[in-house]
């Protein structure tokens, strides 16, 4: 095989295609010129200006709140769903259940957004709640679609787990929920963290669902960005966008690093356990000999 | 497994029930309401549609107004929007496949340490806002943007090319945004392939292309399938990309639905548009769900 074959060239070209536009965006956010396309030297002018933009800062705070509550509830619902899919034997309606988990992954956002809005309106007429749409309705909408992503991430981990450990705990008299909390959860903790992070960023990014189900005074950051981006490229938006890119990639890197470290530790512990087992076995053989 | 099932029945229903109830209430039930509203009439009221069910003089009346569907079928604009969406989504999906397959192949063939790094590089953009990644292209493609000014200073073109607000920009934006979703399932599939099969084929005299076409491609069928569905289905209903990168002549159904809802405030027509879109996508969605169920349960 040649050192440089087509797939490798494509991979490098593809990665450049993915990252170059973002790099250019970050570089131009430090542009001193008010004209977005003309380079006028380095400056952090636009970043400083952001702090005075209270409207924008308020929307950042709202988005962070929604994202935090979304990721917490999505991890709970998504993990339960993943548990049902991987651990429960076939039951009636399992195919429907599985469809409800995976369909939100691909469902066009305009459909989900419109349908949730109509649900909230109908509920408001029928039971009087939610009377006004706002952060709560955005939270519900975000939880529903991010839970699917959590379920996929967590179930891929649950599938790999050695069932005998959970069975051993239950043989020794632990109740199922205790086994789940003390044995299963610690073992899937890295993927819970990854799922949490994923739900957080997905919620932080969402424009379409939030636009449909938000109410007066609950403009989130993507909605704020969208309404000004529609009118063209602006230096302030370059700065906000760069900040989001940087913070999300930092968070991703940290999460990735933590998960990898815990994986490595686990592997090492397992190797040690096997090694000592092998030693013991060798020792007992020697004694019997 | 036996011990697990023996203990489960009591708590089992709660464990299944909680996520089931949530998903039913906030994912399935809303579609029923969309279907209902699509048979209503637009009214100037709060909420802006007529009642489908009414109870007058001990009679339950169901007024199914087919007007929205007739209106949609008679207007060429909506036909063009549906066909345009399907065309753009299909072409973009194929482009993603042709670009993504070699990339996934190269990642699957890299050494273990390199694989995790490359995967992270592919995955990271899927976690950052699609809005911002599309916005980055707006600056690059615009009339006096970086691409045009570079081409002009190199003397390749004399006057700026119109790239932003064209169909070209929409294709570019969709491929750019959805490429990672094609690569990830392809990689997950390709990495499981047994390399000895390819060695055997080349020992028996197959060319690299033959062994790729007759061994690698058939084996990666499930990955291709999952990747294509992950790109095609959401791309059909895409709103942000045609809105920001497309021009006024770019007709996509997601954008039309948005305008009906937010600009014209016609909720029943928007609902009818959503119902038809769902009817077009229901078969791909069911196929995708089947594929994913095996994946979730670990039967693949």
UniProtKB/TrEMBL annotation, chain A:
<keyword id="KW-0472">Membrane</keyword>
<protein>
    <submittedName>
        <fullName>Putrescine transport system permease protein</fullName>
    </submittedName>
</protein>
<dbReference type="InterPro" id="IPR051789">
    <property type="entry name" value="Bact_Polyamine_Transport"/>
</dbReference>
<keyword id="KW-1003">Cell membrane</keyword>
<keyword id="KW-0812">Transmembrane</keyword>
<feature type="transmembrane region" description="Helical">
    <location>
        <begin position="106"/>
        <end position="127"/>
    </location>
</feature>
<feature type="domain" description="ABC transmembrane type-1">
    <location>
        <begin position="60"/>
        <end position="255"/>
    </location>
</feature>
<feature type="transmembrane region" description="Helical">
    <location>
        <begin position="66"/>
        <end position="85"/>
    </location>
</feature>
<dbReference type="InterPro" id="IPR035906">
    <property type="entry name" value="MetI-like_sf"/>
</dbReference>
<dbReference type="GO" id="GO:0005886">
    <property type="term" value="C:plasma membrane"/>
</dbReference>
<feature type="transmembrane region" description="Helical">
    <location>
        <begin position="139"/>
        <end position="158"/>
    </location>
</feature>
<feature type="transmembrane region" description="Helical">
    <location>
        <begin position="237"/>
        <end position="259"/>
    </location>
</feature>
<feature type="transmembrane region" description="Helical">
    <location>
        <begin position="9"/>
        <end position="30"/>
    </location>
</feature>
<dbReference type="InterPro" id="IPR000515">
    <property type="entry name" value="MetI-like"/>
</dbReference>
<feature type="transmembrane region" description="Helical">
    <location>
        <begin position="179"/>
        <end position="199"/>
    </location>
</feature>
<dbReference type="GO" id="GO:0055085">
    <property type="term" value="P:transmembrane transport"/>
</dbReference>
<keyword id="KW-0813">Transport</keyword>
<dbReference type="Pfam" id="PF00528">
    <property type="entry name" value="BPD_transp_1"/>
</dbReference>
<comment type="similarity">
    <text>Belongs to the binding-protein-dependent transport system permease family. CysTW subfamily.</text>
</comment>
<keyword id="KW-1133">Transmembrane helix</keyword>
UniProtKB/TrEMBL annotation, chain B:
<comment type="similarity">
    <text>Belongs to the binding-protein-dependent transport system permease family. CysTW subfamily.</text>
</comment>
<feature type="transmembrane region" description="Helical">
    <location>
        <begin position="20"/>
        <end position="39"/>
    </location>
</feature>
<keyword id="KW-1133">Transmembrane helix</keyword>
<feature type="transmembrane region" description="Helical">
    <location>
        <begin position="224"/>
        <end position="247"/>
    </location>
</feature>
<dbReference type="InterPro" id="IPR035906">
    <property type="entry name" value="MetI-like_sf"/>
</dbReference>
<protein>
    <submittedName>
        <fullName>Putrescine transport system permease protein</fullName>
    </submittedName>
</protein>
<keyword id="KW-0813">Transport</keyword>
<feature type="transmembrane region" description="Helical">
    <location>
        <begin position="79"/>
        <end position="105"/>
    </location>
</feature>
<dbReference type="Pfam" id="PF00528">
    <property type="entry name" value="BPD_transp_1"/>
</dbReference>
<feature type="domain" description="ABC transmembrane type-1">
    <location>
        <begin position="82"/>
        <end position="288"/>
    </location>
</feature>
<feature type="transmembrane region" description="Helical">
    <location>
        <begin position="267"/>
        <end position="289"/>
    </location>
</feature>
<dbReference type="GO" id="GO:0005886">
    <property type="term" value="C:plasma membrane"/>
</dbReference>
<dbReference type="GO" id="GO:0055085">
    <property type="term" value="P:transmembrane transport"/>
</dbReference>
<feature type="transmembrane region" description="Helical">
    <location>
        <begin position="117"/>
        <end position="138"/>
    </location>
</feature>
<feature type="transmembrane region" description="Helical">
    <location>
        <begin position="168"/>
        <end position="188"/>
    </location>
</feature>
<keyword id="KW-0812">Transmembrane</keyword>
<keyword id="KW-1003">Cell membrane</keyword>
<keyword id="KW-0472">Membrane</keyword>
<dbReference type="InterPro" id="IPR000515">
    <property type="entry name" value="MetI-like"/>
</dbReference>
């Amino acid at each position: 095989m040649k050192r440089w074959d087509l797939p490798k060239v494509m991979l490098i070209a593809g990665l450049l295609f993915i990252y170059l536009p973002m790099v250019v965006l970050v570089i131009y956010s430090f542009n001193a010129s008010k004209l977005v396309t003309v380079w006028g030297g380095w400056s952090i002018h636009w970043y400083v200006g952001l702090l005075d933009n209270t409207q924008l800062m308020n929307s950042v705070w709202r988005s962070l709140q929604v994202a935090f509550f979304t990721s917490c509830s999505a991890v709970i619902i998504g993990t339960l769903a993943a548990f049902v899919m991987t651990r429960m034997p076939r039951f009636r309606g399992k195919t429907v259940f599985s469809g409800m988990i995976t369909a939100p992954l691909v469902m066009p956002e305009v459909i989900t957004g419109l349908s949730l809005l109509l649900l909230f309106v109908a509920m408001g007429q029928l039971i009087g709640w939610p009377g006004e749409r706002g952060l709560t309705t955005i939270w519900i909408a975000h939880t529903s679609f991010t839970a699917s992503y959590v379920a996929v991430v967590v179930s891929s981990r649950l599938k790999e787990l050695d069932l005998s450990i959970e069975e051993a705990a239950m043989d020794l008299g632990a109740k199922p929920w205790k086994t789940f909390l003390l044995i299963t959860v610690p073992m899937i903790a890295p993927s819970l963290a990854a799922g949490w992070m994923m739900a957080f960023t997905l919620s932080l990014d969402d424009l379409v669902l939030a636009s449909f189900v938000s109410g007066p005074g609950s403009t989130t950051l993507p909605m704020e960005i969208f309404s000004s981006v529609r009118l063209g490229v602006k230096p302030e938006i370059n700065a906000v966008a760069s900040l989001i890119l940087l913070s999300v990639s930092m968070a991703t890197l940290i999460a990735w690093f933590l998960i990898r470290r815990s994986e490595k530790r686990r592997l090492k512990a397992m190797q040690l356990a096997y090694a000592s087992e092998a030693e013991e076995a060798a020792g007992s053989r020697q004694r019997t000999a | 497994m036996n011990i697990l099932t023996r203990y489960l029945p009591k708590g089992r229903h709660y464990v299944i029930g909680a996520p089931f109830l949530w998903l039913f209430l906030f994912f399935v039930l809303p579609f029923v309401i969309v279907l209902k509203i699509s048979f209503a009439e637009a009214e100037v009221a709060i909420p802006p549609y007529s009642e489908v069910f009414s109870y007058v003089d001990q009679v339950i009346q169901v007024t199914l107004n087919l007007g929205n569907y007739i209106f949609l079928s008679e207007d060429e604009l909506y036909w063009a929007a549906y066909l345009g969406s399907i065309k753009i989504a299909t072409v973009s999906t194929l482009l993603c496949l042709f670009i993504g397959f070699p990339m996934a192949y190269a990642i699957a063939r890299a050494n273990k340490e390199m694989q995790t790094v490359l995967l992270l590089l592919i995955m990271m953009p899927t976690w950052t806002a699609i809005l911002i990644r599309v916005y980055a292209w707006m600056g690059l493609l615009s009339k006096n943007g970086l691409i045009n000014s570079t081409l002009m200073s190199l003397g390749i073109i004399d006057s700026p090319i119109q790239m932003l607000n064209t169909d070209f920009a929409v294709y570019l934006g969709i491929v750019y945004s959805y490429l990672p979703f094609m690569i990830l399932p392809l990689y997950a599939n390709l990495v499981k392939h047994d390399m000895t099969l390819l060695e055997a084929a080349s020992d028996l005299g197959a060319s690299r292309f033959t062994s790729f076409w007759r061994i690698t491609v058939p084996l990666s069928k499930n990955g291709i399938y999952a990747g294509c569905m992950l790109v095609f289905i959401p791309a059909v209903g895409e709103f942000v990309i045609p809105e920001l990168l497309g021009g006024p002549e770019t007709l996509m159904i997601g954008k039309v639905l948005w305008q009906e809802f937010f600009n014209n405030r016609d909720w029943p027509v928007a609902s009818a548009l959503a119902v038809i879109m769902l009817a077009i996508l229901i078969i791909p969605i069911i196929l995708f769900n089947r594929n994913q169920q095996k994946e979730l349960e670990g039967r693949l």
